[in-house]
Amino acid sequence: MKVLVVDDSSLFRRIITEALKPLPGIETIDQAPNGRLALLKVAELQPDLLTLDMEMPEMDGIAVLDALKKLPNPPVVIVVSTLTHKGGHLAIKAMQHGAFDFITKPTTASPEQSLEALRAELAPRLKSLSVRFNVRSILHAQQRTSGRAAPPPASARASTPGSGPSTPQSATQGATPRGSTPDTASSQAANQAPSRPARLAPPEMLLIGVSTGGPNALDCLIPALPATLGVPVFIVQHMPPLFTKSLAEHLAEKSALKVCEAVHETVAEAGTVYIAPGGHHMRLAHGANGQTIIQITDAAPENHCRPSVDYLFRSAANHFPGRAMAIILTGMGSDGTLGLRLLKRHGCFVIAQDEATCVVYGMPKIAVEAGVVDSVLPLDAIAERAVAAIKGRHR
Protein backbone atom coordinates (compact mmCIF):
# COMPACT_ATOMS: atom_id res chain seq x y z
CA MET A 1 0.00 0.00 0.00
CA LYS A 2 1.45 3.37 -1.06
CA VAL A 3 0.58 6.23 1.30
CA LEU A 4 0.77 10.01 0.95
CA VAL A 5 0.70 12.00 4.21
CA VAL A 6 -0.72 15.50 3.67
CA ASP A 7 -0.46 18.04 6.50
CA ASP A 8 0.88 21.58 6.80
CA SER A 9 2.50 20.71 10.14
CA SER A 10 5.93 19.13 9.71
CA LEU A 11 5.57 17.66 13.21
CA PHE A 12 2.35 15.85 12.37
CA ARG A 13 3.68 14.71 8.99
CA ARG A 14 6.57 13.08 10.85
CA ILE A 15 4.37 11.57 13.58
CA ILE A 16 1.84 10.15 11.10
CA THR A 17 4.65 8.74 8.96
CA GLU A 18 6.28 7.05 11.97
CA ALA A 19 2.90 5.71 13.07
CA LEU A 20 2.35 4.13 9.65
CA LYS A 21 5.81 2.61 9.08
CA PRO A 22 5.47 -0.61 11.13
CA LEU A 23 1.89 -1.36 10.07
CA PRO A 24 1.40 -4.42 7.82
CA GLY A 25 1.01 -3.77 4.11
CA ILE A 26 2.73 -0.37 4.01
CA GLU A 27 5.17 -0.24 1.07
CA THR A 28 6.08 3.42 0.64
CA ILE A 29 5.22 6.68 2.41
CA ASP A 30 5.62 10.16 0.96
CA GLN A 31 4.63 13.58 2.28
CA ALA A 32 3.12 16.86 1.09
CA PRO A 33 2.75 20.11 3.09
CA ASN A 34 -0.36 21.40 1.34
CA GLY A 35 -3.19 20.41 -0.96
CA ARG A 36 -1.68 21.80 -4.17
CA LEU A 37 1.52 19.79 -3.80
CA ALA A 38 -0.51 16.78 -2.68
CA LEU A 39 -2.37 16.69 -5.99
CA LEU A 40 0.91 16.88 -7.92
CA LYS A 41 2.25 13.94 -5.91
CA VAL A 42 -0.96 11.96 -6.42
CA ALA A 43 -0.48 12.31 -10.20
CA GLU A 44 3.18 11.28 -9.91
CA LEU A 45 3.06 8.52 -7.29
CA GLN A 46 -0.46 7.08 -7.67
CA PRO A 47 -0.84 6.38 -3.93
CA ASP A 48 -3.47 4.00 -2.61
CA LEU A 49 -4.15 6.07 0.50
CA LEU A 50 -4.02 9.71 1.59
CA THR A 51 -4.07 10.90 5.17
CA LEU A 52 -5.42 14.41 4.81
CA ASP A 53 -5.36 17.45 7.07
CA MET A 54 -8.40 19.70 6.54
CA GLU A 55 -7.03 23.17 7.34
CA MET A 56 -4.06 23.96 5.09
CA PRO A 57 -2.73 26.93 3.12
CA GLU A 58 -3.04 27.20 -0.68
CA MET A 59 -5.65 24.41 -0.93
CA ASP A 60 -7.68 23.01 1.94
CA GLY A 61 -8.86 19.44 2.48
CA ILE A 62 -12.31 19.89 0.95
CA ALA A 63 -10.78 21.30 -2.25
CA VAL A 64 -8.40 18.33 -2.40
CA LEU A 65 -11.29 15.86 -2.00
CA ASP A 66 -13.24 17.56 -4.79
CA ALA A 67 -10.22 17.40 -7.09
CA LEU A 68 -9.61 13.74 -6.29
CA LYS A 69 -13.19 12.83 -7.23
CA LYS A 70 -12.42 13.86 -10.81
CA LEU A 71 -9.64 11.26 -11.12
CA PRO A 72 -10.38 7.88 -12.75
CA ASN A 73 -8.84 5.91 -9.87
CA PRO A 74 -8.57 8.20 -6.82
CA PRO A 75 -6.84 7.13 -3.63
CA VAL A 76 -8.79 6.36 -0.48
CA VAL A 77 -8.75 9.30 1.95
CA ILE A 78 -8.62 9.20 5.75
CA VAL A 79 -9.08 12.67 7.20
CA VAL A 80 -6.91 13.62 10.19
CA SER A 81 -8.90 16.28 12.01
CA THR A 82 -8.45 18.48 15.06
CA LEU A 83 -10.54 17.55 18.11
CA THR A 84 -12.65 20.72 18.04
CA HIS A 85 -16.20 21.64 17.11
CA LYS A 86 -14.86 23.15 13.87
CA GLY A 87 -12.84 19.99 13.25
CA GLY A 88 -15.98 17.92 13.73
CA HIS A 89 -17.89 20.06 11.26
CA LEU A 90 -15.11 19.73 8.67
CA ALA A 91 -14.85 15.97 9.20
CA ILE A 92 -18.59 15.52 8.57
CA LYS A 93 -18.28 17.70 5.46
CA ALA A 94 -15.28 15.69 4.29
CA MET A 95 -17.30 12.47 4.47
CA GLN A 96 -19.89 14.07 2.19
CA HIS A 97 -17.11 14.97 -0.23
CA GLY A 98 -15.80 11.42 -0.50
CA ALA A 99 -13.53 10.69 2.47
CA PHE A 100 -13.46 7.06 3.60
CA ASP A 101 -13.19 7.83 7.32
CA PHE A 102 -11.61 10.22 9.79
CA ILE A 103 -9.42 10.13 12.87
CA THR A 104 -8.55 12.93 15.28
CA LYS A 105 -5.18 14.48 15.97
CA PRO A 106 -4.02 13.42 19.44
CA THR A 107 -3.92 15.99 22.22
CA THR A 108 -1.34 14.08 24.25
CA ALA A 109 1.63 15.78 25.89
CA SER A 110 4.44 14.09 23.96
CA PRO A 111 5.15 13.14 20.33
CA GLU A 112 5.68 9.54 21.44
CA GLN A 113 2.19 9.33 22.96
CA SER A 114 0.73 10.98 19.86
CA LEU A 115 2.47 8.43 17.67
CA GLU A 116 1.02 5.49 19.61
CA ALA A 117 -2.46 7.05 19.65
CA LEU A 118 -2.40 7.59 15.88
CA ARG A 119 -1.11 4.07 15.24
CA ALA A 120 -3.98 2.63 17.31
CA GLU A 121 -6.48 4.61 15.23
CA LEU A 122 -4.91 3.84 11.86
CA ALA A 123 -4.22 0.10 12.29
CA PRO A 124 -7.84 -1.20 12.12
CA ARG A 125 -8.69 1.13 9.26
CA LEU A 126 -5.72 -0.03 7.21
CA LYS A 127 -6.60 -3.64 7.95
CA SER A 128 -10.07 -3.02 6.53
CA LEU A 129 -8.67 -1.22 3.50
CA SER A 130 -6.15 -3.97 2.75
CA VAL A 131 -9.00 -6.22 1.59
CA ARG A 132 -10.11 -3.59 -0.90
CA PHE A 133 -6.58 -3.08 -2.23
CA ASN A 134 -6.01 -6.84 -2.57
CA VAL A 135 -9.24 -7.14 -4.56
CA ARG A 136 -8.20 -4.24 -6.77
CA SER A 137 -4.83 -5.87 -7.48
CA ILE A 138 -6.57 -9.13 -8.45
CA LEU A 139 -8.93 -7.28 -10.79
CA HIS A 140 -6.04 -5.46 -12.46
CA ALA A 141 -4.24 -8.76 -12.97
CA GLN A 142 -7.37 -10.30 -14.50
CA GLN A 143 -7.73 -7.37 -16.84
CA ARG A 144 -4.11 -7.66 -17.98
CA THR A 145 -4.41 -11.39 -18.69
CA SER A 146 -7.90 -11.36 -20.22
CA GLY A 147 -7.73 -8.04 -22.03
CA ARG A 148 -11.13 -6.95 -20.66
CA ALA A 149 -12.56 -5.69 -17.43
CA ALA A 150 -13.68 -8.30 -14.93
CA PRO A 151 -16.78 -7.73 -12.82
CA PRO A 152 -15.78 -6.87 -9.25
CA PRO A 153 -16.78 -9.14 -6.39
CA ALA A 154 -19.29 -7.82 -3.88
CA SER A 155 -16.59 -6.86 -1.38
CA ALA A 156 -15.14 -4.37 -3.87
CA ARG A 157 -18.38 -2.85 -5.14
CA ALA A 158 -20.25 0.27 -4.15
CA SER A 159 -17.97 1.78 -1.54
CA THR A 160 -20.25 4.81 -1.41
CA PRO A 161 -23.43 4.21 0.59
CA GLY A 162 -26.59 4.26 -1.48
CA SER A 163 -24.66 4.36 -4.73
CA GLY A 164 -26.83 1.83 -6.48
CA PRO A 165 -29.70 -0.59 -6.13
CA SER A 166 -29.24 -4.08 -4.83
CA THR A 167 -31.58 -6.95 -4.24
CA PRO A 168 -33.08 -7.22 -0.74
CA GLN A 169 -32.17 -10.46 0.99
CA SER A 170 -33.62 -12.47 3.83
CA ALA A 171 -31.08 -12.95 6.59
CA THR A 172 -30.21 -16.29 8.07
CA GLN A 173 -32.31 -16.86 10.66
CA GLY A 174 -33.72 0.56 35.75
CA ALA A 175 -31.71 3.67 36.16
CA THR A 176 -27.95 3.38 36.68
CA PRO A 177 -25.80 6.37 37.60
CA ARG A 178 -23.04 7.84 35.45
CA GLY A 179 -19.92 5.70 35.56
CA SER A 180 -21.76 2.47 36.41
CA THR A 181 -20.55 -0.98 35.35
CA PRO A 182 -22.57 -2.55 32.49
CA ASP A 183 -24.72 -5.61 33.18
CA THR A 184 -22.14 -8.34 32.60
CA ALA A 185 -24.70 -11.08 33.25
CA SER A 186 -26.71 -9.78 30.31
CA SER A 187 -23.57 -9.73 28.15
CA GLN A 188 -22.89 -13.38 28.98
CA ALA A 189 -26.51 -14.34 28.37
CA ALA A 190 -26.36 -12.71 24.95
CA ASN A 191 -23.78 -15.26 23.80
CA GLN A 192 -26.36 -18.05 24.14
CA ALA A 193 -29.49 -16.04 23.35
CA PRO A 194 -31.49 -17.81 20.62
CA SER A 195 -33.26 -15.90 17.88
CA ARG A 196 -37.04 -16.03 17.97
CA PRO A 197 -39.64 -15.13 15.36
CA ALA A 198 -40.14 -11.38 15.02
CA ARG A 199 -42.80 -9.92 17.29
CA LEU A 200 -45.93 -8.71 15.49
CA ALA A 201 -46.77 -5.68 17.65
CA PRO A 202 -45.42 -2.40 16.23
CA PRO A 203 -42.19 -1.25 17.93
CA GLU A 204 -42.20 1.77 20.21
CA MET A 205 -38.60 2.86 19.60
CA LEU A 206 -36.00 2.61 16.84
CA LEU A 207 -32.37 1.77 17.68
CA ILE A 208 -29.53 2.34 15.19
CA GLY A 209 -25.88 1.27 15.45
CA VAL A 210 -23.24 2.47 12.98
CA SER A 211 -19.51 3.12 12.67
CA THR A 212 -17.22 3.61 9.66
CA GLY A 213 -19.17 5.25 6.84
CA GLY A 214 -21.86 6.25 9.31
CA PRO A 215 -22.21 9.97 8.60
CA ASN A 216 -23.08 9.34 4.96
CA ALA A 217 -25.32 6.38 5.82
CA LEU A 218 -27.23 8.44 8.37
CA ASP A 219 -27.36 11.31 5.87
CA CYS A 220 -29.34 8.96 3.63
CA LEU A 221 -31.45 7.24 6.29
CA ILE A 222 -32.54 9.89 8.79
CA PRO A 223 -33.88 12.50 6.31
CA ALA A 224 -35.92 9.68 4.73
CA LEU A 225 -37.86 9.13 7.99
CA PRO A 226 -41.14 11.10 8.11
CA ALA A 227 -42.15 13.63 10.75
CA THR A 228 -45.08 11.30 11.53
CA LEU A 229 -42.79 8.41 12.53
CA GLY A 230 -44.34 8.40 15.99
CA VAL A 231 -41.44 6.86 17.97
CA PRO A 232 -38.10 8.12 19.33
CA VAL A 233 -34.91 7.14 17.49
CA PHE A 234 -31.66 6.37 19.33
CA ILE A 235 -28.33 6.30 17.46
CA VAL A 236 -24.88 5.16 18.49
CA GLN A 237 -22.31 6.36 15.96
CA HIS A 238 -18.69 5.65 16.86
CA MET A 239 -17.31 9.18 17.10
CA PRO A 240 -15.13 11.24 19.43
CA PRO A 241 -16.43 14.08 21.63
CA LEU A 242 -17.61 17.25 19.83
CA PHE A 243 -18.05 15.43 16.51
CA THR A 244 -21.44 13.96 17.41
CA LYS A 245 -22.77 17.45 18.06
CA SER A 246 -21.68 18.47 14.55
CA LEU A 247 -23.34 15.35 13.13
CA ALA A 248 -26.60 16.12 14.96
CA GLU A 249 -26.59 19.70 13.71
CA HIS A 250 -25.97 18.56 10.15
CA LEU A 251 -28.77 15.96 10.21
CA ALA A 252 -31.18 18.39 11.88
CA GLU A 253 -30.84 20.80 8.97
CA LYS A 254 -32.16 18.30 6.45
CA SER A 255 -34.51 16.03 8.44
CA ALA A 256 -38.23 16.22 9.17
CA LEU A 257 -37.53 14.75 12.61
CA LYS A 258 -35.88 16.75 15.37
CA VAL A 259 -32.24 15.64 15.75
CA CYS A 260 -30.05 16.37 18.78
CA GLU A 261 -27.11 15.09 20.76
CA ALA A 262 -28.51 13.17 23.73
CA VAL A 263 -28.40 14.77 27.21
CA HIS A 264 -28.32 12.89 30.53
CA GLU A 265 -31.73 12.30 32.20
CA THR A 266 -33.70 13.56 29.19
CA VAL A 267 -37.23 12.19 28.74
CA ALA A 268 -37.31 10.70 25.24
CA GLU A 269 -39.99 12.09 22.94
CA ALA A 270 -41.54 10.54 19.84
CA GLY A 271 -40.38 12.16 16.63
CA THR A 272 -36.93 13.02 18.00
CA VAL A 273 -33.59 11.47 17.04
CA TYR A 274 -31.06 11.20 19.88
CA ILE A 275 -27.37 10.68 19.05
CA ALA A 276 -25.10 9.34 21.80
CA PRO A 277 -22.48 11.97 22.65
CA GLY A 278 -18.95 11.06 21.60
CA GLY A 279 -16.83 9.62 24.39
CA HIS A 280 -19.86 8.53 26.47
CA HIS A 281 -22.29 5.62 26.49
CA MET A 282 -26.04 6.05 26.07
CA ARG A 283 -28.55 3.76 27.76
CA LEU A 284 -32.32 3.72 28.21
CA ALA A 285 -34.16 3.34 31.51
CA HIS A 286 -37.71 3.57 32.90
CA GLY A 287 -39.00 6.86 34.25
CA ALA A 288 -42.24 7.90 35.91
CA ASN A 289 -45.53 7.27 34.11
CA GLY A 290 -43.93 4.86 31.64
CA GLN A 291 -41.51 7.43 30.28
CA THR A 292 -38.26 6.46 28.58
CA ILE A 293 -35.28 8.16 30.20
CA ILE A 294 -31.95 8.64 28.43
CA GLN A 295 -28.88 8.18 30.57
CA ILE A 296 -25.37 9.16 29.56
CA THR A 297 -22.65 7.24 31.41
CA ASP A 298 -18.89 6.97 31.61
CA ALA A 299 -18.83 3.20 32.02
CA ALA A 300 -15.86 1.31 30.57
CA PRO A 301 -15.60 1.05 26.77
CA GLU A 302 -17.12 -2.03 25.14
CA ASN A 303 -15.65 -3.50 21.96
CA HIS A 304 -13.01 -0.76 22.36
CA CYS A 305 -15.81 1.77 21.82
CA ARG A 306 -17.49 4.47 23.86
CA PRO A 307 -20.25 5.02 22.90
CA SER A 308 -20.99 1.36 22.24
CA VAL A 309 -23.86 -0.07 20.22
CA ASP A 310 -24.04 -3.15 22.46
CA TYR A 311 -24.43 -0.91 25.52
CA LEU A 312 -27.48 0.84 24.05
CA PHE A 313 -29.06 -2.33 22.64
CA ARG A 314 -28.60 -4.21 25.91
CA SER A 315 -30.33 -1.48 27.92
CA ALA A 316 -33.32 -1.57 25.57
CA ALA A 317 -33.52 -5.36 25.81
CA ASN A 318 -33.34 -5.28 29.61
CA HIS A 319 -35.74 -2.41 30.29
CA PHE A 320 -38.03 -2.39 27.25
CA PRO A 321 -38.29 -6.02 26.10
CA GLY A 322 -40.31 -6.51 22.95
CA ARG A 323 -40.73 -2.77 22.38
CA ALA A 324 -37.84 -1.94 20.04
CA MET A 325 -36.69 -2.51 16.50
CA ALA A 326 -33.05 -2.20 15.50
CA ILE A 327 -30.96 -1.31 12.46
CA ILE A 328 -27.28 -2.20 12.12
CA LEU A 329 -25.39 -0.18 9.52
CA THR A 330 -21.93 0.03 7.96
CA GLY A 331 -18.93 -0.25 10.26
CA MET A 332 -15.84 -2.17 11.31
CA GLY A 333 -15.89 -4.82 14.00
CA SER A 334 -18.72 -6.62 15.78
CA ASP A 335 -20.23 -3.98 18.05
CA GLY A 336 -23.99 -4.50 18.21
CA THR A 337 -24.26 -8.25 17.70
CA LEU A 338 -24.34 -9.20 21.41
CA GLY A 339 -27.00 -6.59 22.03
CA LEU A 340 -29.02 -7.85 19.07
CA ARG A 341 -28.95 -11.36 20.54
CA LEU A 342 -30.66 -10.03 23.65
CA LEU A 343 -33.16 -7.98 21.67
CA LYS A 344 -34.04 -11.01 19.53
CA ARG A 345 -34.98 -13.00 22.64
CA HIS A 346 -37.94 -10.61 22.91
CA GLY A 347 -38.87 -10.61 19.23
CA CYS A 348 -37.07 -7.47 18.08
CA PHE A 349 -37.26 -6.91 14.32
CA VAL A 350 -33.74 -6.30 12.96
CA ILE A 351 -32.61 -4.81 9.65
CA ALA A 352 -28.99 -4.91 8.44
CA GLN A 353 -27.46 -2.84 5.66
CA ASP A 354 -26.33 -4.98 2.74
CA GLU A 355 -22.73 -5.48 1.70
CA ALA A 356 -22.99 -3.62 -1.60
CA THR A 357 -23.93 -0.31 0.04
CA CYS A 358 -21.67 -0.55 3.11
CA VAL A 359 -18.39 1.34 3.25
CA VAL A 360 -17.18 -1.47 5.54
CA TYR A 361 -19.26 -4.64 5.74
CA GLY A 362 -18.23 -5.55 9.26
CA MET A 363 -20.90 -4.91 11.89
CA PRO A 364 -23.78 -5.98 9.62
CA LYS A 365 -21.86 -9.04 8.44
CA ILE A 366 -21.20 -10.32 11.96
CA ALA A 367 -24.85 -9.78 12.91
CA VAL A 368 -26.09 -11.64 9.82
CA GLU A 369 -23.70 -14.53 10.45
CA ALA A 370 -24.91 -14.70 14.06
CA GLY A 371 -28.47 -15.23 12.84
CA VAL A 372 -29.91 -12.14 14.56
CA VAL A 373 -31.05 -10.25 11.45
CA ASP A 374 -34.50 -10.49 9.85
CA SER A 375 -33.92 -8.44 6.70
CA VAL A 376 -30.83 -7.37 4.74
CA LEU A 377 -31.49 -4.30 2.60
CA PRO A 378 -29.65 -1.70 0.53
CA LEU A 379 -29.28 1.57 2.39
CA ASP A 380 -31.86 3.47 0.36
CA ALA A 381 -34.54 0.84 1.11
CA ILE A 382 -34.12 0.74 4.88
CA ALA A 383 -36.18 3.79 5.84
CA GLU A 384 -39.28 2.59 3.99
CA ARG A 385 -39.06 -0.86 5.59
CA ALA A 386 -38.51 0.60 9.05
CA VAL A 387 -41.50 2.94 8.73
CA ALA A 388 -43.69 0.05 7.58
CA ALA A 389 -42.65 -2.01 10.61
CA ILE A 390 -43.25 0.87 13.02
CA LYS A 391 -46.65 1.59 11.51
CA GLY A 392 -47.50 -2.12 11.79
CA ARG A 393 -48.06 -2.63 8.08
CA HIS A 394 -45.67 -5.58 7.78
CA ARG A 395 -42.68 -7.13 9.49
UniProtKB/TrEMBL annotation:
The active site is at S211, H238, D335. Its EC number is 3.1.1.61, 3.5.1.44. It is an enzyme of class 3 (hydrolase). SMART domains: REC (SM00448). Phosphorylated by CheA. Phosphorylation of the N-terminal regulatory domain activates the methylesterase activity. GO terms for molecular function: phosphorelay response regulator activity; protein-glutamate methylesterase activity; protein-glutamine glutaminase activity. Residues 2-120 form the Response regulatory domain. Keywords: Chemotaxis, Cytoplasm, Hydrolase, Phosphoprotein. It comes from the Bacteria. Gene3D superfamilies: 3.40.50.2300, Methylesterase CheB, C-terminal domain. GO terms for biological process: chemotaxis. Contains a C-terminal catalytic domain, and an N-terminal region which modulates catalytic activity. NCBIfam families: PRK00742.1. Involved in chemotaxis. Part of a chemotaxis signal transduction system that modulates chemotaxis in response to various stimuli. Catalyzes the demethylation of specific methylglutamate residues introduced into the chemoreceptors (methyl-accepting chemotaxis proteins or MCP) by CheR. Also mediates the irreversible deamidation of specific glutamine residues to glutamic acid. This is Protein-glutamate methylesterase/protein-glutamine glutaminase. The lineage of its organism: Bacteria, Pseudomonadati, Pseudomonadota, Gammaproteobacteria, Chromatiales. The gene is cheB.
